[in-house]
Amino acid sequence: MNGAGAGQGQYGAPPPAPVLPPPAGRSRQGGAAFTVLVSVAMLLGAGVMALVLLGSGAPGALVVGTLLAALPVGPLVACFLWLDRYEPEPRGLILLALGWGALVATAAALVLQLVGQFAFDRPETFTAAISAPVSEEAVKGLFVVLLLVARRHEIDGVLDGIVYAGMVGIGFAFTENILYLAAAYMGGDGAGPGGIEGATGTFVVRGVFSPFAHPFFTAATGIGVGVAVVTRSRFWRVAAPLLGYSVAVLCHALWNGTAYFDGGQLFLLTYLFLMVPAFLLTAGFAVWASTREGRMLARALTDAADRGFLARHEVPWLVRVAGRRAARSHARAQGGAPALRVMREYQQQAIELGFLHDRYLRGTAPADFARRGQAKVERMAVLRPHVVFPTAAGTTWTTQPRREGGR
Questions:
Q1: What segment(s) does the record annotate as region Disordered (predicted)?
Q2: Residue 21 φ/ψ, nearest 5 degrees
């Protein structure tokens, strides 16, 4: 087996050409079609929500609602990005997920609920407890399903499903909170005292005690999609997303239903003894999955190094988050912005190769894994002569930076 950059093994030998050929047409067309579809849907959703918001006739209330609704967004996004630290998803897709939740899902759910309410003449309690959870979780989860179909290579497992679903939920909660907070600010019609007092009370309930609700609900669908990606069972490839969606609807229905029935007396009990423990359990699972992802990436890249796809001494600078930062800082100090760009791309290519190689080792590799792996190995071979690591080739692991998290 040859050394790093030789590219011998499962993915073949890289050609000497300095520039890689473009990706296969099918992959590029699928990604472009997905982006266009989501962008058009967001434009339509923005139009619907603009009509709804402008129809309120209270610009001052909308400003207050928007400012308060934006407060939980930053911390929530930061939490999901932290979970996503080992293989950061494309920021463009993260923004699309947020936009889908904020514009498409809210508009579609609102239209579906209005149609259902008038067509079937159901009371508000039925809409809140049944219609809203079914429709909202369907349109929120649709983004993750579309991503799975059009850009399957972006979802490597359960954690990716949680991240994308969580971002959709954050976007949805943001727009929904604007409506609730604006209504609370205006007051009247049983909405409370109005003004800042009313908006603050609603913010405490929705923005302080339960900002996680929508991301948590939709994360169940994301977990189901993630399981479908990594499982070998044909049954679970179909059943897991459906089961995840069912769990999302059930949790959402319990949340809404207890707030409406029996005067809301069961809501506090449901919140304290069901929703909070379930959220903490899901959060703990996500943290465990993130930690496991780091160990998996180290294992996969070490095996890839043994097969000659990269040098073994590079692995700590590619896997550990602290090591990545140190390598980037060193590259910038040695070669400026161009060297930093090369280091970033090399790390990203290696990380994606590691996740793909792990699926190959577990026997769940996608049908196009050889082509994708070959492209990454070739690209790394082109970049490698220009990569500046903090230590020279041949340095042992014992002299590398301290392992993150004790690994």
A1: 1-25
A2: -65, 155
Q: At what angle do helices 25-54 and 158-186 cross, to 10 degrees?
A: 10
The H or E element spanning position 399 is none
Residue 383, CA atoms < 13 Å, CB-side half-sphere: 25
Picking from 256, 170, 150, 271, the residue whose alpha carbon sits closest to that of residue 219 is: 170
One-letter identity of residue 314: E
Residue type, 303: D
CA pair distance 231, 235, nearest whole angstrom: 9
Q: What is the pTM of this model?
A: 0.85
Return the amino acid letter for 297. L
Contact 249, 134 (CB under 8 A): yes
Domain boundaries of the chain, sorted by first residue: 56-265, 296-406
Residue whose C-alpha is closest to residue 134's, from 119, 113, 161: 113
pLDDT tens-digit map of 299-338:
999 999 999 999 999 999 999 899 999 999 999 998 899 9
Q: Are 166 and 218 in contact (CB under 8 A)?
A: yes
The two three-digit tokens of residue 390, written as one number: 């903090």
Distance of CA 223 to the CA centre of its chain: 11
Residue type at 322? A
Give the integer Cα–Cα distance in Å for 194 and 200: 9
Per-residue pLDDT tens over the stretch 27-36 = 455 678 899 9
Helix (H) or strand (E) holding 79: helix 73-83
Average pLDDT along the chain: 85
What is the three-class DSSP state of 258? helix
Contact 168, 101 (CB under 8 A): yes
For residue 404, the surrounding DSSP H or E stretch is none
